[in-house]
Amino acid sequence: MSRDRLKPDSKQNRITIVQFVLTIHSMQLGVGAISIPADLARISGTDGWIALIMGWAVSVVASLIIVQVMKRYPKGTILELIAHYFGQWAGRLTALVFVVYSAIFAYLILDRMVLIIQSWIMQQTPPYTLMLLFIVPAYVIVKGGVRIIGRYSEVVVLCSLWMPLAMLVLLKEANWLHLLPVLKEGWMPVFKTVNTTIITFLGFESIYYIYPNLDRKRYASVGVAIANTLTLLVYLFLTLICFLVYSPDQITQFNDAVLSVVKIIEFRFLERFDIVMLTCYLLIISKTWIPPLYIAVYCTKRLLFGGKPELYLGVFLAGMVVVTYLWNPDWNESVDALKWFSNFGIAIAYVFPLCLWGVLSVMLKFKRWQT
Amino acid sequence: MRRAAAILLIASMLAVLPGCKDRLDLEDITLVLMFGLDLDKDNKLVIYASSPVFNKEAKNKNEVTQVNAITLRQSRGELEARVSALVSTGKLQCILIGKKLLQHPEWVKLLDVFYRDSKTRVKARLVAVDGPVADIMYFAPPDKRRLSLHIANLLDTAYERNLVEETSLWEFHRQLHERGRTPEMTELRKNKREVVADSTALLNDDGKYVTSIGIEETELLQILQKDKKSDLSLTLVLPEQEKAGASFLYAGSISFYVLDIGRKVRTAYTGGKFRFDLDFDLEIRLTERFFAFDVLHDAGQLEAQIDKRLQAQMTALIAKLQANRMDPVGLGLHARAFQYAAWKKVQDHWGEAFGQAEFKLRVHAKIVDMGEIT
């Protein structure tokens, strides 16, 4: 990619508000969608969907705070913003943190995606072989910069609009009595679930890096709200479908509840619909880990004073395959790693912007920092 | 130089792809369409597998094998040592289970492989068999197609006409793990000439076989469940219209389609007992009547006689279910939804609470069509 590709405010890197919304939404909606109904049911039974709405509210607030922070330095990403207000070394430290964060994010999601394929379709094939299949497309997309990622998100969202429609077929198996009584054990279990749901909204931290590329910045706040709402609607839809179809005592036994339920969709001309769904769902998962990969490359370049981004990208992708070849994480390790990582995510996406916003608000009260 | 490196890289990646070990050619697959599970005379597990043979040289178009095994997955190896190719359950149609096996509640553990291994078709039908499973597995009627496909079609169409209940593997899992209802499945038997699907096996909370109900009772059960598929045709003999006549003819016979079922369930909990008020509004269309009646003017009178008869039969069915502590209607879901506090106390032994519940049942039939002749 040319140097300009990574310059956030250069003209050829501008993204429209739709691309902005869909990129954020894409990074939020990923592997979590497959397991979230059962995860919620394990904590608060069929009331878990209420916690989704609470998690959404929290993530909207956090996204709006990030937008407020980014407004302080609209020309650059979070790295330039920090460098501007706190000095070069603070900027470099932030870059380092984000390299680690994004690289782990991208790796864990890619690895989980490969594990899902292995578990559902190709049980005898080693994960690193499957991973190789996704390396080339990821390379091409990330190389294109933010605009290409934005367009990719648009295309994939458009291509996957049929999936919720196909899942509506399941409503003929639905039993609405499963949802009653609402709040059967009171509010406590629901509050306990909120922790799980705010993790599923992780991904809006991409605003840190795509905000400067946004064409019309005054729509940014509306945009992040729409992106979060879109994600909420998808999660609510999947969760309610699963709660209606599975019996409340049954759903807790399933790991990938959404895939298992799709297995019962059959047409006269097509059986094993879950395989079709899963294959198409891979596209949706791919747009979850491609943006963080871009962020990792971007931050590496900042950290190492330039150099060729393609090289870093290649190293990251090759590194992922090598790590999988050497470590080969199993399902339990993947689950544990993601659980550990979600704490990191909460710090980066929820705590960090709040602190930064507080510090900046106080700082800018004083004249000497107001440039 | 760079292009050469790129080509080399892509070529080396392609070279890894044959490492994909999941390739399976169609010629190397034996598609098991029907499994049979039963106990032999020493109470050891026997697994039968029936699969089609696509070969011009084979005289029989169906291959049936039986093995002794500890589990179903272990039986796969034993089967593969005998059948033409590699066993695949992706097209599984039916799983026949002998009643002798169904008497042991532990039998449900055998199904674990179907839910755990993502390669099985979970829409395969579960079927109870009255009598030895081997009789059906090895049965090859000359006037029918492959038995496995014949049975699948037989069950589907019988279910479509509401004659039997049909339960897929997935549906069974849901019923078994729903504390508010008990599972059910189609029951097959074989007489001298054919395979008959004319009853429904009812299981208790643990999945143990308890009793069976016939076609008429299954139809009523489906009204109770509000689970009508396509044509639901009932035939009643009204005692009010009975007259002494030829011994084979019941003069009080009347048949009708139930076009629409309206069900209202009211759930209450008083005096330590659940109480269900079930109200049914049935729209019916007469299709057969042996006695003279002026439906145009006295429809209400006929409706009252039908109501009374249906009410008596449905009450008897509920009493039978209660006596056996089984709730295939799923009234436990209503108890959970509307009387949660009371439900929580009995949720782990709902069958018992269902058995002690009080019922009030009302049926209101409405003749919307008397047919072509008066």
From TrEMBL, chain A:
The chain crosses the membrane at residues 15-36, 48-69, 89-110, 125-142, 154-171, 191-211, 223-246, 275-299, 311-328, 340-364. It is found in: Membrane. InterPro entries: Spore_GerAB. It is a multi-pass membrane protein. This is Endospore germination permease. It comes from the Bacteria. The keyword Transcription does not apply. Keywords: Germination, Membrane, Transmembrane, Transmembrane helix, Transport. Coiled coil: none annotated. PANTHER family: SPORE GERMINATION PROTEIN A2. The keyword Membrane applies. Belongs to the amino acid-polyamine-organocation (APC) superfamily. Spore germination protein (SGP) (TC 2.A.3.9) family.
